[in-house]
Amino acid sequence: MQRFTPARRLLSEFKCSLRRQRRCFSQVAPNVVDNNDGFGPKIPSFDYSPPPYTGPSADEILSKRKEYLSPAMFTLYSKPLNIVDGRMQYLFDDKGRRYLDAFGGIATVCCGHCHPDVVEAIVNQTKRLQHSTILYLNHAIADFAEALANKLPGNLKVVFFTNSGTEANELAMMIARLYTGCHDIISVRNAYHGNASGTMGATAQSIWKFNVIQSGVHHAVNPDPYRGVFGSDGEKYARDVEDLIQFGTSGNIAGFISEAIQGVGGIIELAPGYLPAVYSTIKKAGGLCIADEVQAGFARTGSHFWGFENHGVVPDIVTMAKGIGNGIPLGAVVTTPEIAAVLTRRSYFNTFGGNPVCTTAGLAVLKVIEKEKLQENAFVVGTYLKERLTALKDKYELIGDVRGRGLMLGVELVSDEKLKTPAKLETLHIMDQMKEMGVLVGKGGFYGNVFRITPPLCFTKEDADFLVDAMDHIIARM
Amino acid sequence: MAMLQRRILKSTLEEAKARFNFNCYPLLPPCASFSTLPSSSTTATAHDDVPPQLPPFDYQPKPYNGPSADEILAKRKRFLGPSLFYYYQKPLNIVEGKMQYLYDESGRRYLDAFAGIVTVSCGHCHPEILNAIVEQSKLLQHATTIYLHHAIADFAEALASKMPGNLKVVYFVNSGSEANELAMLMARLYTGSLGMISLRNAYHGGSSSTIGLTALNTWKYPIPEGEIHHVMNPDPFRGVFGSDATRYAKEVQDHIEYGTSGKVAGFIAETIQGVGGAVELAPGYLKQVYDIVRKAGGVCIADEVQTGFGRTGSHYWGFETQGVIPDIVTMAKGIGNGLPLGAVVTTPEIASVMAQKIQFNTFGGNPVCSAGGLAVLRVIDREKRQAHCADVGSHLIGRLRSLQDKHDIIGDVRGRGLMVGIELVTDRKEKTPAKAETAILFEKMRELGVLVGKGGLHGNVFRIKPPMCFSKDDADFLVDALDYAMSKL
């Protein structure tokens, strides 16, 4: 474990890196070694060998994707990875090479790839009954709904199952509008809530918004401690929400939706004090508060089970997806009986929602999180990882900010520390090199200059060390 | 006339009963748990006192040790909210499925004539599909399309090969609602227009914007829907123009000329309306409307969520029965035999507009669902499910038409392949929906061991859309059960 280097070497490395940073960074630095053999940090050992892969090659897949799938479908690397197997916090490519999955299929695989308990639950249920709809009874949906409700505070105990985060947020927004009789919803700039009509409106980054009508959504100033105009003063940002309501709406609104830590937006934790102040404003305007826990939920933040708990608030509606099923297509909306009653006015139905296999998997996930104390692990390892990354930030000017909580961390790269100029090309380069070294991270932020580190919650300290050492190794050679 | 017929039939049957009495179990009440009785082949006429019996099936469900129906219902009421409705006065606790049969907590077998709402296309726990799902789940459940994986590519290729014309770019989503949402977005982006047109009595989804396309008040919450209009339904049974497609098509023309700027984004329709009660669009309708919509700059979307994958028997896709090629096709339900999966297929030209911005679906196209979907396509082909639907479907419809001659309450029998509807009316002339009777018969069918679906705006249509492994014996059993139940009304 490389943790302490002699001071002199550190200083000369630092001077070298300073000198390099004064050079023009638009020139991407040469590649570091493209394999992990005996050079640079090593991936922690792991006792599992994937079965040999005999399927189509990466090139064959790429050409089929070009022909039969969306032209806008993108991959993360200059040479896209063909991922064929996964085990806990590791992924394997078609050559059997192992990678540390520090992205978790976008904060989705929370227990670990192919976690035995979850797989067993899925397989057993699939062999019995895949689907029949909620028109008939089945214990799986009821047991899971109960277990999920028990994880939530206050009177949040009625669950609606959907198949994705987008569906969950769409339903939440519709419920808020029906309940209040108002149409206006406020979301936060830089937010991501989904890609269907209502959620595209709530999503607030131009790259995700098509030129179609997205009505009734207002976007508030982002309480971004790193780039925001008011720094970490949550209450100052909250005033913008008040203004939006007073000047942009009838004075009464349907609700407010936000992530506790913005995921796609680059792991931005809402400034402290923001949510309590905003929730108060929203309630005064008759609106409902929706907490989008699609990424921050299910123990990921370590200190609490839900992201919103870190802010000391209790929402009226909570939406979830991604980690809820360790990768199985599942989403949920949880709210109070009073609010839930609004859907009885007509019929709301979701054919696949609440099917036995997905709900069985969901229940297995909750059990694994508890049994393996994954929340505590997220806290311990996450804190450790953040400390190491912060030390790295002190070492390199390229790293402008290290933020987040538990195992939802972000590393923002800038080419100028004062101006905070996004270092987009460097981010791409480092990401590619990390992959060559065996670490898969994610990317985010409006400028695409933030590393998103949201691994499976079974991530260890050794994994954390490997990740940081790899990053250190790469940046040092730029 | 029907009364006389019934009296004659009754005396005939009574005579027959006298002859057959020694073969039956007269001590058992008519609606006993008869799945344990030895099954006998059913005849065309139902015996008045002995209910028809399920065809035999060589399978033992696993013993069930889980919570009871009452316990589950109590939890549902508490944790799943009052809006989560269910079938039957005494709801059924379904714990296991095998091919076209379902089992309740006591191990009783039922004929699943609704397939989890037209969703279990190949059969519950079909071994080949099960194997694909299980094997892939052990390897990799999820990583997203930011990495490569062969399953999504192979499945997309196989799906595209089933499509006519230049329909070959596939988008994977997780439900029919998501698919129709995406189709609507594509239509609006591609044309630069806003106006969407759908049919009255259509169902296209339950999300806030597909609710706009859906046109049945039961499913429509009072929320803004944007620029969507609903045109006259080309309903041969209840429509004002009968089966005259041209007259209905003119409605669309009129709407465009008077109700829009003259240009529209698109038109979407199911070829056989599902939730709306298995209403097959008047023949020739789509050809004319597609023409009209395209002249107005719009795209044509075929919602194949229920009619796709060989179910209509005569064709693989519902739209093929109307002799058209749409610009966008949406699918879900049967595509994965129950896996949460949906898809949109369109042309490269239309797909290119989606490249203006980023649209990403986290779960869409995941390895497990893709592997399952590919297995479904293979099973449908290898087991010749489409031909089977045509064969069994025509037998079923034939028998139902005979039943219609016998019982006045059957106002209409319609559909194609294994997508069949039976509309019940109290008055054949007025076509007054027989809502109460439908509800009673619905319950009776369950008691007899047949699970059907219900639809239509007035809830007076039985929807018969079983897993496509449904046999002629199953069809006979279903019709005999219906006959039996109706005779007792």
Task: Describe the fold and architecture.
Chain A: It holds the Pfam family Aminotran_3. Chain A: Keywords: Pyridoxal phosphate. Chain A: Belongs to the class-III pyridoxal-phosphate-dependent aminotransferase family. The complex is a heterodimer of chains A (478) and B (489). Chain A is an alpha/beta fold. In chain A, 37% of the residues lie in helices and 16% in strands. Chain A contains 14 helices and 18 strands. Chain A has helices at 7-22, 58-68, 104-107, 116-128, 139-149, 165-180, 197-202, 234-248, 274-284, 337-340, 356-371, 374-395, 424-437, 461-476; strands at residues 83-87, 90-93, 98-101, 158-162, 185-188, 217-220, 255-259, 261-262, 268-269, 288-292, 317-320, 331-335, 399-405, 408-416, 421-422, 439-440, 442-444, 450-453. In chain A, helix 4 (116-128) runs antiparallel to helix 11 (356-371). The longest helix of chain A is centred in the C-terminal third of the chain and has 22 residues, at 374-395. Chain A is globular, with a radius of gyration of 23 Å. The model of chain A is unreliable at 1-36 (pLDDT under 50). By secondary structure, chain B is of the alpha/beta class. Helix content of chain B is 36%, strand content 15%. Chain B is built from 14 helices and 18 strands. In chain B, the strands form four sheets. Chain B has a seven-stranded mixed β-sheet with strand order 4-12-11-10-7-5-6, with helices on both faces. In chain B, helix 4 (127-139) runs antiparallel to helix 11 and helix 12 runs parallel beside helix 14. The two termini of chain B are 17 Å apart. Residues 18-44 of chain B have low confidence and may be disordered. The chains are: A alpha/beta (478), B alpha/beta (489).
